[in-house]
């Protein structure tokens, strides 16, 4: 450390023309602004702050006025474009030909997205189908692609509508025939043999009978089942009927609890007698089918 070599009484003399306050670095009293006034820089900052506050107040006031004033009316909501609708097909060439041949047996005809639908009299459905499948028609509909049924419970007199979807393989054209009936209609198996199982399915699930069918019996449900599940008035939940009483065993509370547990763990297959038999065969080490020696 450097030693203080100043000796008492050895102060440096003040330079001529320099006051004591300037020599010591302290501003003179005349340089200090009077009390209650700000320096120039502080006054400028205060002015900028005041301007900013006034701008914020003006923006708030304009927003308040806009909120209070009624807003401009919103543009109307654009309506969703409506899809295509069925049109009258009375002037269709095929409809005219059918009307000229069968007269009043041909009812309403509509066309929707290029698909022709014609309502016909059920008493003459076989004649009409035979005509469309023959060479007499310019467009021969030689393929019955589908035969199904629709149930309309509100139609008291004719609640069922049998639908025939016909296809022309040569011309790549389609036509849909509709027949309204209460309980039965003539079979078209003599025109298209493929209608056999289609009509059986409709009979099984809707209960509509097909006259002159070669083998009219249920197709999907057991022969002694009661009711027709695709009717609109058929209950959706489980129902007890004669078939369930005759074929489903009566289970005790313990067996019911075991069944629920098997279902919870995905073990339903083990409740089938054949599955239990196969399981016993594998556990016993037996061969399911003997190998050829």
Report on the structure:
This protein has helices at 20-24, 40-68, 93-102, 125-133, 195-206, 242-247, 253-264, 273-283, and strands spanning 87-88, 106-112, 115-120, 143-151, 160-168, 173-181, 184-186, 209-211. It is an alpha/beta fold. Among the domains are: 87-211, Beta Polymerase, domain 2, CATH 3.30.460; 249-280, no CATH class. It has a six-stranded mixed beta sheet with strand order 1-2-3-6-5-4, with helices on one face. It is flat and about 130 Å long. The relative contact order is 0.06.
Largest sheet: 6 strands, mixed
Mean of all residue-level pLDDT scores: 80
The low-pLDDT segments are none
Helix content: 25-40%
Short description:
With 293 residues, this protein is of the alpha/beta class. It is built from eight helices and eight strands, in the order ααβαββαββββαβααα. Among the domains are: 87-211, NADH:ubiquinone oxidoreductase Nqo5 subunit (Beta Polymerase, domain 2, 2-Layer Sandwich); 249-280, no CATH class.
Which key terms come to mind for this protein?
293 residues; alpha/beta; Beta Polymerase, domain 2; six-stranded mixed beta sheet; two-stranded parallel ribbon; 16% strand
